[in-house]
Design brief:
Blueprint lengths: L5 E9 L5 E10 L4 E5 L6 H5 L10 E6 L2 E2 L5 H7 E4 L12 H11 L4 H14 L15 H13 L5 E5 L7 H13 L3 E5 L3 H7 L2 E6 L2 E7 H6 L1 H6 L12 H10 L1
Parallel strand pairs: 3-8, 3-9, 6-7, 7-8
Antiparallel strand pairs: 1-2, 1-4, 4-5, 9-10
Helix pairs in contact: 3-4, 3-5, 4-5
Length: 255
């Protein structure tokens, strides 16, 4: 079995205050798939993602990456395979300079200084942040921090890319740049997003979560055409599928 495969079986996560964030969640994602996990705020999306590289430990159930169950003993190997980009860049950036932040992962992989420098240079170029190399992360804008956070993961050359709200905080140019980057990433991609047009453009498969449960899992086009399902999960169609409201008003007036 490919180590790019992600499988969850009967996962449940209960927070210390008793809140049940994930309820009996199961799915199987194969090598090379691009999968979006969508839902309204509080649906359990971010909690679910944080289980995929061991940031959170399931109360019950299991995560497997390929043939390897995610346990405390396998966590270092899992994290070399699964790269996680958090929703808030400040959770990911902690070094004095951008270069040191992006270099942190490759250095811990035991790479040579020349290989680390090459990885950092390539990752920053991929996200359009080469000019930020010597900057202090706390001096960056929100969008710049997001790009650097993505570079910290790309520099580790993960086989599975997991991203929580990747376009959040990005301007339109940076959003297009990120989408181009994600199209070029040929391995497994899993991300949450409220940017449903990005989901429609990049993901052939979509999973809808609602109140901690999976409500639907199927082809993205079919998911977004099911208005009853979307409404029940407090979602709407992507803007590109809604039609032009100005044109619609004009049509109504001439009918």
């Amino acid at each position: 079995m490919s180590h790019h495969i992600v499988e969850a079986k009967n996962m449940q996560h209960v927070y210390p205050d008793g809140t049940i964030a994930i309820k009996d969640v199961s799915f199987h994602i194969t090598h090379g798939e691009s999968v979006a996990i969508i839902g309204a705020n509080g649906a359990g999306k971010s909690t679910l993602l944080q289980h995929l590289n061991g940031c959170l430990e399931a109360t019950s159930g299991q995560i497997r990456i390929g043939d390897t169950p995610l346990t405390k003993g396998t966590l270092p190997d899992i994290r070399r395979t699964v790269g996680m980009v958090f929703q808030y860049p400040d959770d990911q950036l902690f070094m004095p300079t951008v270069f040191e932040d992006v270099a942190f992962g490759p250095l811990n992989q035991g790479l040579s200084d020349s290989d680390v420098d090459r990885r950092v240079t390539e990752a920053l170029a991929q996200v359009g942040a080469a000019h930020l190399r010597t900057k202090a992360p706390y001096h960056l804008s929100g969008g710049e921090k997001k790009r650097v956070a993505i570079a910290t993961v790309l520099a580790m050359s993960p086989d599975i890319l997991v991203m929580d709200e990747p376009t959040s905080g990005l301007d339109p140019f940076a959003r297009r740049q990120l989408m181009s980057l994600l199209r070029e990433f040929r391995h497994t991609k899993i991300f949450t997003s409220h940017d449903l047009d990005m989901v429609l453009d990049l993901c052939e498969r979509t999973i809808i979560m609602h109140e901690g449960m999976i409500m639907a899992d199927g082809p993205t086009d079919e998911i977004f055409k099911n208005e009853t399902l979307l409404a029940a999960c407090r979602l709407e169609k992507p803007f590109s599928m809604q039609g032009c409201p100005v044109c619609s008003r004009g049509h109504a007036q001439t009918s």
